[in-house]
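Let's study a protein:

===
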Amino acid sequence: MGKQTPSSTASILSAIRKRMPGIGALIQRQRLLLALEARDGVTTIDALRFLDIIDPAARVFELRREGHCIVTNFVLQATECGDVHCVGCYTLQTLSTLGARSTVGTQLELPLAPHA
């Protein structure tokens, strides 16, 4: 897929939300799966902001339990406040993407223990 821009992310994910309204877990999973199929990756911030999924990690857990292979990488992303956070970026692995690493954002190695 081509380079993802914030405006293309917003327009694609917002269109998915408008096409599939609702607040139940099932419809949220369906929106997230459709977004994962349409994008190289979906961050927790974008899922909340544009797909109206309050707890993306829970929906990803449920999709994995259904058998979908979803990889989590960590990326830096700014919120509306301008603060940069380390957030999950979910990528759906398919036959064409197995073995390939996600190229969305910056992958980080997180420390095992907090700094003093």
About this structure: The chain has one domain: 6-92. DSSP finds four helices and three strands in the chain. The longest helix spans residues 6-19. Confidence is low (pLDDT under 50) at residues 102-107.
